[in-house]
């Protein structure tokens, strides 16, 4: 490693049969070094020049041209919506269901999957552990009987990702 914390690559070119010189299509030196240093700003490149932190860095003046990559990186992105467009207005009007798995390592009771049911109105979550995915429908029937008996309401809609 050199004094400016850069690694010197020692290469033996005598073994190469066909030597080629590759050149860049960029004629502007500032743009070339801007790309080489991962779209470093003009102030950053200027500091590298002033403090002589890079051997072989030519002296050049700043240009007013803005790089397309830098513009894309600074471009405004719309945020994700904070809430959904529609929410359930009463309990069990909409229930979200999902199956998670294959979970590794397997639990002590040989359970490899989880199934969750989330009530959209109350945001209450029920979690059941499954050995196989084929148990999902039987587990849903147990869940349905339990919550309908507890609340006195009926499940109107179940939303899943068809997993």
* Beta-strand fraction estimate: 5-15%
Tell me the CATH superfamily of the largest domain. Answer: Ribonuclease H-like superfamily/Ribonuclease H
Low-confidence stretches: none
What is the molecular shape? elongated
Give the helix tally: 4
Report the CATH architecture of the largest domain: 2-Layer Sandwich
Number of domains: 2
Helix content: 10-25%
Cα-to-Cα separation, first versus last residue: 54 Å
Helix and strand sequence? HHHEEEHE
CATH class of the largest domain, anyone? Alpha Beta
User: In total, how many beta strands?
Assistant: 4
CATH topology of the largest domain: Nucleotidyltransferase, domain 5
Strand order of the largest sheet: 3-2-1-4
The rounded Rg comes to: 31 Å
Report on the structure:
The protein has a four-stranded mixed β-sheet, with helices on one face. The chain has helices at residues 29-36, 42-50, 68-74, 136-151; strands at 95-101, 113-119, 125-130, 158-159. The model has no long low-confidence stretch (mean pLDDT 83). With 163 residues, it is an alpha+beta fold. Helix content is 25%, strand content 13%. 6% of the residues are buried.
How would you sum up this structure in a few lines?
By secondary structure, this protein is of the alpha+beta class. It has two domains: 1-10 and 25-71, no CATH class; 95-159, Ribonuclease H-like superfamily/Ribonuclease H (Nucleotidyltransferase, domain 5, 2-Layer Sandwich), CATH 3.30.420.10. It has helices spanning 29-36, 42-50, 68-74, 136-151, and strands at 95-101, 113-119, 125-130, 158-159.
